[in-house]
Design goal:
single chain, alpha+beta, three-stranded antiparallel β-sheet, two-stranded antiparallel sheet, 3 helices, 5 strands, elongated
Length: 112
């Protein structure tokens, strides 16, 4: 079973010291990340999957929740999730042209 969650990587700040908010795709004991366009100035502005102590926290959280819901819908549309590894799921979620009802071999062939 695959799950999605919002996260930051505290050990990987950007050059300017900010942190990019990512969507973690967790599957088969591995996690791969999808970058979002959102970032925060400090790790203390992110708690339990939500932006806190930020001037636009409410707006950012709404947009992140909508983005997470969109990825969840894509994930739910993939047949036979157990046939995919975590990287393949992440790639399928980020590629808008992928056929989510395709076979494992078809998706694996596209990914190398």
């Amino acid at each position: 079973m695959a799950t999605l969650k919002l996260a930051i990587l505290k050990d990987k700040p950007s050059i300017d010291g900010s942190y990019k908010i990512r969507i973690g795709v967790c599957h088969k004991k591995k996690t791969y990340f999808i970058l979002t366009r959102f970032k925060i100035e400090s790790a203390s502005q992110f708690k339990n999957g939500m932006v806190v102590k930020h001037p636009q926290a409410s707006s950012i959280n709404t947009k992140l929740r909508n983005l997470l819901n969109e990825y969840q819908e894509r994930l739910d549309s993939i047949a036979n999730i157990s046939l995919y590894d975590c990287r393949q799921l992440r790639d399928a979620l980020t590629t808008s042209t992928v056929n989510h009802t395709g076979t494992f071999n078809a998706v694996a062939g596209k990914n190398g």
